Amino acid sequence: MGSSDDWPQPVLAIDLSLQGVWHALESPRLMRHERAMAAWIALLEDCGLYLYQLERHGRQADESAPTQNDLEQLRNDALYPVLRQLRQRLPRQGAAVCAVMGAEEYDDESLDEQQIARIRSALRHGVALHG
Predict the structure, then answer these.
(1) Distances (CA, A) of 18 to 107, 115, 117
(2) Is residue 84 classed exposed, middle or buried when 0-12, 13-18 and 19+ CB atoms within 10 A define those classes?
(3) Which residues have CB under 8 Å from 130's CB, separation 6+?
(4) Shortest CA distance to 100 belongs to which of 82, 117, 83?
(5) Which of 34-38, 95-99, 122-126 has the lowest mean pLDDT?
(6) What is the pLDDT of residue 65?
(7) Residue 34: which of 24, 43, 44, 42 has the closest Cα?
(8) What DSSP state is assigned to residue 4?
C-alpha cells in the first residue's frame, strides 16, 4: 500500500477525500481499531460537496459559492437514512460515526468521548496536511 504522500495533487473533491482516507488509515493519532471508521468518515465528509458539484455539472457558474453550512446540510440530508440504519444495526458504532460527523444530536452515554475526539483530531489533521 503506497503512502498518501505519493498521491498526485488533488483535482476533484474525491481526490481530497481519498487523501483523507489514506491519512486516516495511516494516522498514528488513532488506535488500530479506529482507523477503518475514520477512513469511512473521511470519505463521507465531503458528500455535500459531491452532490453540489453533481447538481452544477453542465451549468453556468453561480454568482456565489455554497457555504460550509449549505454543504453540511446537503450531506446530512443525503446521509440521514443511511446513518439512521447504521445506528439501528450497529448502535455503538453508528452513534460514534454520527457524533464525529455532527450529523445528528446524540445522547448516548456509551460513547467514548476520547475516541470521538481522537477521530475528529485525526480527520482535521489530515485536512490540514492535504486540504
Answers:
(1) 30, 22, 21
(2) middle
(3) 4, 10, 16, 19, 20, 23
(4) 117
(5) 122-126
(6) 76
(7) 24
(8) G
pLDDT of 32-58, one tens digit each? 999 999 999 998 888 887 788 777 766
Gap between the Cα atoms of 75 and 69, Å rounded: 10
Residues 75-95 have a mean pLDDT of 88
| Mean pLDDT over the full length of the chain | 80
Are the beta carbons of 114 and 29 closer than 8 angstroms? no
| Residue position matching grid coordinates 457555504 | 67
CB 95 within 8 A of CB 106: yes
Q: Which residues of 30-46 are buried (b: 16+ CB within 10 A; e: fewer)?
A: beeebbebbbbbbebbb
Q: What is the pLDDT of residue 32?
A: 92
Q: 3-class secondary structure for 21-81?
A: HHHHHHCCCCCHHHHHHHHHHHHHHCHHHHHHHHHHCCCCCCCCCCCHHHHHHHHHHHHHH
